[in-house]
Design a protein that fits this description.
The chain has one domain. The protein contains six helices and no strands. α5 runs antiparallel to α6. Helices cover 78% and strands 0% of the residues.
Amino acid sequence: MHARAGAPPDSGRLVRWIAVERGFRALVLAGVGIALLTHPHTDWASEISHLARRLGLDPNGNWIRKATAAVKHVGPREDTLFGVVALAYAALEGAEAYGLWRRRRWGEWLTVVATSLLIGPEVWALTKSVTPLKLGGLIANILIVAYLVWRLLNRSRR
């Protein structure tokens, strides 16, 4: 396939980077899901504090305190629900990673649709509190969607 005249060549290397990022997300989410499902009675707040200490972080730091407060009242029923959701999301991210890595058109479309659906909740989360991580994630996802849409539209014009 040849690029249109005047259009910059696109080797698709960025698609591979997106695939790796989605694959990494899938692995992390699968790990979280498995941990939640296999350890439903764990005190996750103390585990987060312990992990922070092992990583050399201050367990009383702002974001660690927020994380421990958020999970302090989560019980076994919620652990199971969150575990199932994490595994389902891991499967979605894994499918995106596979489709992108294999340069399948469906993988690009799946990533565009799934990522676009999550931009709204990301914006809503920013209305609650702005952090560099949240803002960076939103910007990265918008750029990923824009790039993949551009690729899909340019491919259909060839």
